[in-house]
Amino acid sequence: MKKNILVVEDDPVIYRLISQVLVKEGYKVSVAKNLHEASQELKSFRPDMVILDRRLPDGDGLNLCREVKPAGRGGSTALMFLSSRKTTPDKVLGLKMGADDYLTKPFHVDELLARVEVLLHRVGGQEAEEQTLACASMELDAERHVCSVAGKDVHLWPKEFELLKIFLSRPGKVLSKEYLSQQVWGHEFIDTSRALEMAVRRLKQRLGREGRRIETIKGYGFRLNNEKQEK
Question: What is the pTM of this model?
């Protein structure tokens, strides 16, 4: 079943880009250019997710956040701020108001799609999470919390396990350090670049030969290479 996503953004270049990539991925998209239009869309469109800008012609997106997430509570509608306000206080305020994620502009389309997918699974819970993930000789059982390489169990610490789970769920995709940090450490950790690099290094060591599949994308993040490799 297609998921409904409401994009609240007044910049035509940005909302057209977001709409195009989301529709291409199979989502049903509606666009609101201000808070008033967004409030009307919430009544008729019934979105599974709202992608919301902070700076809108008729006010701050935080006002709509209160409507989607009353009193900072969760709910079945995921909400992600997409804003040029990138200071730590702005991010913390948005998350404390009930937002499930906060992505700053400019953004990478692949990262936006990855965050949308993760949030729809986490917040809505409409689909059962895939329990077994695999690539080459690596296999991860999320329910049993077991990892194996070439049929042999490999002990991973919780952060390493979560990192591998993300890599295996999005093979071949370049994932930013910010995205990985937020997914593994949570929003309370604003700068985890060094911790992330150390965790990735340990994960690669534990995976042995298969660890070479986790590649560093200089200046951005990491990628799990799922192509056939030479022996």
Answer: 0.59
2-20 as b/e: b if 16+ CB within 10 A: ebbbbbbbbeeebbebbbe
The kind and range of the H/E element at 211 are none
**What CATH number is given to the structural domain containing 15?**
3.40.50.2300
CA dist list (Å): 152 to 73, 139, 148, 155, 165: 43, 10, 5, 10, 17
Mind listing the pLDDT tens digit for each residue in 171-220? Answer: 998 988 888 887 787 654 455 668 889 999 999 999 999 999 999 998 88
In sequence order, what are the residues at sequence separation of 6 or more whose Cβ sits closer than 8 angstroms to the Cβ of residue 188? none
Contact in structure between 27 and 4 (CB atoms under 8 Å):
yes
Question: Residue 181's domain spans which residues?
Answer: 132-224
Q: What is the CATH number of the domain that holds 177?
A: 1.10.10.10
User: Using H for helix, E for strand and C for coil, what is the string for 121-159?
Assistant: HHHHCCCCCCCEEEECCEEEECCCCEEEECCEECCCCHH
Name the residue among 29, 99, 91 with its Cα closest to residue 63: 99
Three-class secondary structure of residue 33 per DSSP = coil
* Same domain for 153 and 89: no
Number of domains the chain contains: 2
